[in-house]
């Protein structure tokens, strides 16, 4: 299994399927545990992530850590990745062609991980993973099922930094996530 992860990460680093590799500093492949039951998917790396080659290490990442802490988790107990693995210049949203070029890697990551729960962080991940017409304001916190995997979307941590008025709804979504994890995952919370 470790070999398969390494092969996938190496292939991803060599990918030339779109032009984002030309301006990136580092590939940003994943973080957390490759045996986790819960997968979190963001949009794409920002400047700090590109510098360090690790997802969610900038301000949004610190806020994500705070969100996980609210439900008694940290990044060692979940798996974290993004829709695109190279930084879109100037922090723009990844273009559809870039997302489409990269999504095969996320599918292969999901096939190796076999998560019980997928949490989409923000609209872009939700539109790729849950459904193309996903409306984050209306459908955050709603549970969907795809091929036996439970999934939901929450507001992206960057959106919560920009607009704190959305935080109370996100608190409810986090509590719903905690309940779902307790009901379908066996290893995420150490037995109490
Ligand atoms: N925002 C994302 O969507 N992903 C990261 O890795 C960092 C910020």
Looking at CATH, the homologous superfamily is: Uracil-DNA glycosylase-like domain
Q: Enter the CATH topology name.
A: Uracil-DNA Glycosylase, subunit E
Task: Give, in spatial order, the strands making up the sheet with the most strands.
Answer: 1-3-2-4-6-5
The rounded distance between the terminal residues' Cα atoms is: 30 Å
Task: Estimate the strand proportion.
Answer: 5-15%
**Global outline:** globular
Radius of gyration (CA) equals: 16 Å
**Number of beta strands:** 6
| Unreliably modeled segments | none
**Residues in helix, %:** 40-55%
Which features characterize this protein?
192 residues; alpha/beta; Uracil-DNA Glycosylase, subunit E; 8 helices; 44% helix; globular; binds uracil
Q: What's a quick, concise take on this entry?
A:
A hairpin with a 2-residue loop joins strand 5 (144-146) and strand 6 (149-154). The chain has helices at 2-14, 47-52, 59-70, 96-113, 123-129, 136-139, 157-162, 167-184, and strands at 31-32, 38-42, 79-82, 117-121, 144-146, 149-154. 44% of the residues lie in helices and 13% in strands.
